[in-house]
Amino acid sequence: MNKAIYIGELTLNITLQPDCTASTKVGDWAVNAAMLDGRMDLPTIFVGEAGADTVGDHIVAHLEEAKVDVKSIDRYTEGLSPVRISDGQDAAKVMGHEKFPVEPVNAVWPRIDEGDVVIFGSYMALEERNHARLFELLKYAKARKAYIIYLPYFAPYQVPRITRVMPSVFDSLEIADLVISTVNDIKAIFPGDDIEATFKEHIHFYCKKFLCMDASVKEMRFFDGDESWTKKCHPTDNTDFQWYSGALAGAVRVLTETNHPDPDDIMEAANETAHSELAASI
Question: Which listed site, 13, 68, 137, 250, has its alpha carbon 20 to 30 Å from 118?
Answer without folding.
Answer: 13
